[in-house]
Amino acid sequence: MLFPVYAQAKNAAKKTSALSQVKQIGLGVKIYQGDYDDGYPIGSGACWWQPIDGGWTFGVMPYLKSVDILRNSGDPKSTALWPAWMVGIDGAINISYASNGYMKWDGAGWGMYGVIGMDQAHDQVRPDGSCTSTAWMSKGVATESEINSIAKTIMFTERYGSYPIYGPSNFFTGVDWWDGVGVGCWIPDPRRNGDPYVVNEWGGRSGVWVRDNRLGGMNADWSGASVIAFTDGHAGAMKPLATNPDPDNQPNRNMWDIQSQH
Question: Against a cut of 0.85, is the pTM above it?
Answer without folding.
Answer: yes
